[in-house]
UniProtKB/TrEMBL annotation:
This is Coiled-coil domain-containing protein SCD2. Residues 6-69 form a coiled coil. PANTHER family: COILED-COIL DOMAIN-CONTAINING PROTEIN SCD2, FAS-BINDING FACTOR-LIKE PROTEIN. The keyword Coiled coil applies. GO terms for biological process: cytokinesis by cell plate formation. Keywords: Coiled coil.
Length: 323
C-alpha cells in the first residue's frame, strides 16, 4: 500500500512539475510575443518619425525654394530705378511720335526725300498705335524728361562728392521711384523690355530723331533758299540745335550717365566703364552742340552693342541669388 501511495504521489508531483513547466513556457512564450509586439511598435514609431522628419525636410526645402523664387520675382531698388527709366524712355518717344505725327500730318510736305520718309512714317503709321502707347506709358511715367535728367544731375553731383545734400536728393529720388513702381516685380521689367523691343522694331526713335533734326532746318531752307542767303548768319545759327534737339541730347546724356555709372559700380566692362562714365558726366549740363547730338547717338549704339543693360541685369540677379 505504501509503495502504491508513494508512486501516486510521485506521479502527481511529476504531473504538477510538468504543468508548472508548461505554465512557465506558456508565460515565456507570451512574454516573447509581447516583447516582439513591443519591438514592432517601436520600429513602426521609428519609421513614422523618420518619415515625418523626411517630410519636414522636404517641406523646408520647398519653402526655401518658394522663398528664393519669390525673392527673384521682386526687383531690387536699382532694378526698380531701371524700370522707371525705361518707362520714361517709352513715354517720351511715344509722346514725341504723337506730337510730330500730328504736326506733320497737316503741314505742307517738304520736297526733300529724307524728310518725306520721316513725315510719312510718323504721320502715316504711328497714329494707329502711338496715341494709345503714349497714354499707357505716360500714365506710368508722367514726367519722363524731368525724372531722367534729375537722376543724371544727381549722378553727376555724386561723382563730384558734394556730400549730404546729394545724399538727400538721392534718397528723395529713390523714394519717388518707389512711389512710382510700388513693390515692383519681374513682370514690370518684362513689360518695359517688351515695350522697348516694340519701339525699336517700329524704328520710332530713328524717325523722331529725323523729325527733330529736319523740321527746323527745312523750314529755314524754304525761307532762305529762294533769296540765296545760305551764308546769312541767321541761317548758320539754324545749324545749331533747336530747343527740342537740345532737350533730346540732355535726356540721352542723362541716360548714358546713369547706365555707365551703374556699370562702373558693378564692375561691368571695367576697362572702359570709368572713362565712359566720366565722359558723359563732363558733358552733362553744357549747352548741347551738333557734335554732342552725334556723340549721344554713338553712345547709345555703343551701350546697346556692348549689352550693358543685360550685363547689369545679370550682375543684379547674381547679387539676389547670393543674398
Amino acid at each position: 500500500m505504501e509503495v502504491r501511495l508513494l508512486k501516486r504521489k510521485e506521479a502527481a508531483l511529476l504531473q504538477k512539475e510538468k504543468q508548472m513547466r508548461d505554465a512557465i513556457q506558456t508565460k515565456k512564450n507570451d512574454k516573447d510575443e509581447e516583447v516582439a509586439a513591443l519591438r514592432q511598435q517601436v520600429q513602426a514609431a521609428r519609421d513614422e518619425a523618420a518619415a515625418a522628419a523626411e517630410q519636414l525636410r522636404e517641406a523646408e526645402s520647398e519653402a526655401k525654394a518658394l522663398h528664393s523664387m519669390t525673392q527673384r520675382m521682386i526687383l531690387t531698388e536699382e532694378e526698380k530705378e531701371e524700370v522707371v527709366f525705361k518707362r520714361c524712355w517709352l513715354a517720351r518717344f511715344w509722346g514725341l511720335a504723337v506730337r510730330y505725327g500730328k504736326c506733320f500730318l497737316f503741314d505742307e510736305l517738304p520736297a526733300m526725300l529724307l524728310f518725306h520718309y520721316c513725315v510719312f512714317y510718323i504721320a502715316g503709321i504711328y497714329p494707329d498705335i502711338a496715341a494709345s502707347k503714349h497714354e499707357h506709358w505716360s500714365s506710368l511715367a508722367p514726367l519722363p524728361f524731368e525724372v531722367v535728367t534729375s537722376a543724371g544731375q544727381i549722378a553727376k553731383e555724386e561723382a563730384s562728392s558734394k556730400g549730404n545734400e546729394v545724399s538727400k536728393e538721392r534718397n528723395k529720388l529713390v523714394s519717388d521711384f518707389n512711389e512710382i513702381t510700388g513693390k515692383g516685380n519681374i513682370e514690370s521689367m518684362l513689360s518695359v523690355e517688351k515695350g522697348l523691343r516694340e519701339l525699336a522694331s517700329l524704328k520710332v526713335e530713328d524717325a523722331v530723331v529725323l523729325a527733330l533734326a529736319q523740321h527746323q532746318r527745312l523750314s529755314l531752307l524754304r525761307e532762305y533758299a529762294s533769296d540765296y542767303k545760305l551764308g546769312d548768319p541767321k541761317f548758320m545759327e539754324a545749324l545749331e540745335l533747336s530747343k527740342e534737339e537740345a532737350e533730346d541730347v540732355l535726356f540721352k546724356q542723362s541716360w548714358l550717365v546713369y547706365f555707365w555709372g551703374r556699370a562702373k559700380q558693378h564692375g561691368v566692362e571695367e576697362e572702359i566703364a570709368e572713362e565712359r562714365s566720366q565722359f558723359w558726366i563732363d558733358h552733362l549740363g553744357q549747352q548741347p552742340s551738333l557734335h554732342d547730338a552725334i556723340d549721344v547717338e554713338r553712345g547709345l549704339i555703343e551701350l546697346k552693342k556692348l549689352g550693358i543693360e543685360h550685363l547689369l541685369w545679370e550682375a543684379s540677379r547674381r547679387d539676389v541669388d547670393t543674398n
